[in-house]
Amino acid sequence: MTDAPHIPVLLDEVIDALAPRPGDVIVDATFGAGGYTRRLLDAGAIVHAFDRDPDAIEAGLKWPETRENPPRLILHPRRFSEMADAMAEAGVPQVDGVVMDIGVSSMQLDQAERGFAFASDGPLDMRMSQDGPSAADFLNSADEAEIADVLYLYGEERQSRRVARAIVAARPLSSTAELARVVRKALGHRPGAPKDPATRSFQAIRIHINDELKELEAALSGAEALLKEGGRLAVVSFHSLEDRIVKRFLRDASGASAGTSRHLPAANDGEAAAFASLSKAIRPTEAEIARNPRARSATLRAATRTGAPAREAA
After folding, report:
1. Domains along the sequence of the chain with CATH
2. Within 13 Å, how many C-alpha atoms sit on residue 94's CB side?
3. Is the pTM of this model over 0.85?
4. pLDDT score recorded for residue 130
5. Residue 309 CB partners (closer than 8 Å, separation 6+)
6. 162-181 pLDDT per residue, tens
7. Contacts of 295 (CB under 8 A, 6+ apart)
8. Whose CA, among 93, 100, 130, 166, lies 20 to 30 Å from 221?
9. How far apart are CA 103 and CA 41, in angstroms?
10. C-alpha of 264 from chain center
């Protein structure tokens, strides 16, 4: 697993934003195959890595850094929304950096049996943690209006009602190929079109099943509470819904919504700014996209924690 089975996105830019030094304690909130963690460990950092996917944790336990004394890689089989509580339980009240790579991992997408994608047929699952209700459970039991709302809110599917009606009419559904066929037929898919119309529905259902946007909001608040003064936050997102949440969080936490400089701590509704030095949106180069087409939609946003207390909401 030291040779990760996927290519971490914006790796150099993330490491530059975190600026790890020997002895720094950094949270990798979305461990996955460990691409960011590998570089952080190589820089001499101590990494607390979170992942709710038991497969990722099992693979990470084979890394030699977990067996050092004391270990430099500490794995937490938990949701990243729980990072503040988990770190407190581990006796680490503050950290030097937090990195998040939001959404589904390449490993999950490439395993047909996990049911995240329709490139290869598999069970209609989509659960990151491999427990709780699956995508099939949701689609085969929810009413048409609820399915339509999910498709519209999380997939920005403009024809969500038509797709939801087709899903209900085709029940029961059990495989990714079945769902993809239903969505394509409902939307009048033309083979060879640049983007498969089922993509939006798969994204929406996956986000709903894993409660991804609320998890992200909670994780950002947890990072604010954990980071020490001068600590660095780096967040990579892959679609507009995620990026909008990250951008709004940093804007509000920096006081930028009050019209102040993004580089300076400023008051916002009576609170001192919790973050400063917000980066502009950083996107992959054409060279990276050529190496890794999945990087195309990635956006990195980074910021530095001030000495202000974490906001009450955080």
Report:
1. 11-106+212-305 (3.40.50.150), 111-210 (1.10.150.170)
2. 11
3. yes
4. 76
5. 272, 274
6. 999 999 999 999 999 999 99
7. 7, 9, 10, 284, 288, 289
8. 130
9. 23
10. 28
